[in-house]
Write a structure and sequence with these properties.
alpha/beta; single chain; Rossmann fold
Amino acid sequence: MDIRIALVGMGGYGQGYAKELLQASPDRCVRLVAGIDPAPERCRLLPDFYRAAIPIFPNLQDFFAQDRADLVVLSSPIHMHASQTCLALAHGANVLCEKPICAVIQDARQMAEAERQSGKFVAIGYQFSVTSAIHELKRDILRGDFGQPKRLKTRILWPRMASYYHRNRWAGRIKSDSGEWVLDSPANNAMAHYLHNALYVLGKTPATSARPISVQAELYRANPIENYDATALRVVTEGNVEVLFYAAHTIPDEAHPVFCYEFEAATVEYTAYSECSLIARFNNGSVRTYGDPTAPGAEWQKLWNCVDAIRSDKPVACGIEAASAHTRCINGAQESTEITTIPPEGVRQEPRGEADTLTWVVGLQETFLQSYTQGCLPADLGTFPWARAGKVVDLTQYDHFPNLSKS
């Protein structure tokens, strides 16, 4: 019998899910039963929905009033993830929720309780966590092949134009128009899977991530948005492992994502878009390759992992518990420091493409590259008079944003 799938969010990233499902081979035994979006005209594949006689609903409530699904795929705005997940679970559907799990940790806890009561599963769409490359790497970490972890650092520099922040009403926002937490940022959206991955590979079991015990943040803003568009984080996990994370949209040129995971006996390095990009180099000179977690087709394995989980009752690769470590870091980072608005004299704006503009900060790209190389926060370099690191936020008992226990 076919697995019945409903897709919430047909525009933007949701179009990737739509394409994967509409083009699925018959042996997948899945059926896309609905597209759900208040503005479905944004979906380039809308004619394909019509040709396949797939109904369109404006919201999830209207869909469940008329139909059912075995799996609901949520590719909706961050601030809708928690309520839509709980609604789908209450109607007997499993859920694949796109990253991040939600905006604030108390919503993740609410989702976990709804999952427990429903008897269904919630998977979070961190695509690296489903790939064989990362699974094999994590297996070897858990087996102790590399020795104890020492420091994990990641750097992603992706320019984003003005159109990126104008594409919807929640991009770059701290709260939605109706007052829900969004906390959209490079670390909580476009680059979230890289921060999650550093925590995920350190998890004590295949289904968990390392629990962060503290975070210190630098948050910077050059675009006219509410939240930050560049950040550097220093996270400390259980076991006193340092996780450094550098992410920026306000740079003039793209630098391919890289990470370097340092262990006692080996160093694991990754460079996106390169052959055999995930490589472990041991202190004794031996090398172990794991393949490419961004290989063609890898991104949508999260969907097929959920389909397999429904048929087999096997656990999903990344669930609520594994994804919540990232959300704790994001929430703590917002409380570590106020956002620094870059002084106008350090900001440049230039035309890019047709009727688009890129805002970037002079020297920020070089500073983030140097910080990554040296394993420090940008403020430590003293390059910018306006750069500042925030306070260290304790995450050991962190379960609400904002932290209501603060005096």
